[in-house]
Amino acid sequence: METLLTSLENNIYTITINRPDKMNALNAQVIADLRTAMQHVYDSEEVRGVIITGAGAKAFIAGADIAEFADFNAKEGRLMAANGHAVFNMIENCPKPVIAAVNGFALGGGCELAMACHVRIAAENAKFGQPEVNLGIIPGYGGTQRFVQYIGKGKALELMMTTDMISATEAHTLGLVNHVVAPEALMTKAADMLAKIFTKGPLAIARVIACVNAHFEAQQGGFEREIKEFANSFDSTDFKEGTTAFVEKRKANFTGK
Ligand code: COA
């Protein structure tokens, strides 16, 4: 796959998003490759668990690829969100355990991808945030829903509206992250957790995942609403201003139009 590195060891399929010069930003190709990789996870008997991480020491994933979607219209925005939701739902509903090994910035779609995984282990240098409103858009890969599920409504609203980033330690305190470890211990910690889970009944593990996800089924309408509002935000002048400002490396001047 063009944008992913994959390996299989001890029944663990490791998926590494491999665009380190772009902070592993999620473009359409990464989303397509992730879909292929996750289909392999579903189909392969050898794969019993998954670790998702980012290439390089700086970023897990710094969000969706801003340069790619900067001139999208609402229709393209809707398709982008729908494609992302489909893949992230494959991760969340995977009957085999999926762990995010968060090795640096997990912003926007990166934080959202980590939240779609069953467990998050963060390196001490990891940082989390949902900075989309800086661009005049909203989280579009499930963030408005899953952030609330993990950290509660008040803190989720604060972080999505201020775009403040939180450290790995704060993310742990808030319940977003399961464990915080030294960067060099990250992959071992994730592999050790999977090795422990592999000693349990695989069918029982799949049932636990399905039942926990079922707890949130009544709230599926929020995900649909997010796709719609994400798409609508592409029609605004603020979206043009926000993305142009990012590309030009300056502060955005929003007008509310
Ligand atoms: N989309 C596209 N490109 C991105 C990106 C993204 N989400 N995040 C980082 N990049 C690119 C930068 O444009 C830069 O490319 P360049 O070298 O061609 O100019 C490269 O990755 C390195 O990023 P840079 O900003 O120079 O690194 P930094 O250490 O100064 O800052 C971040 C790191 C993560 C704080 C900063 O890149 C950032 O704020 N990224 C955007 C986060 C965001 O808004 N995500 C939500 C998108 S919906």
Question: Can you walk me through this structure?
Answer:
- The chain has a single domain, classed as 2-enoyl-CoA Hydratase, Chain A, domain 1.
- It is 48% helix and 16% strand.
- Helix 1 links the parallel strand 2 and strand 3.
- With 257 residues, it is of the alpha/beta class.
- It contains 11 helices and 10 strands.
Class computed from helices, strands and strand pairing: alpha/beta
Q: H/E series, N to C?
A: EEHEEHHEEHEEHHEHEHHHH
Return Rg in Å: 17 Å
Uncertain parts: none
By DSSP (H or I, 4+ residues per run), the number of helices equals: 11
The termini sit apart by 40 Å
Number of strands: 10
Helix content bin: 40-55%
Ligands in the model, by name, code or SMILES, are: coenzyme A
CATH evolutionary superfamily: 2-enoyl-CoA Hydratase, Chain A, domain 1
Would you tell me the overall average pLDDT? 97
Overall geometry comes to globular
Strand order of the largest sheet: 1-2-3-5-7-10
For the biggest sheet, the summary is:
6 strands, mixed
CATH architecture: Alpha-Beta Complex
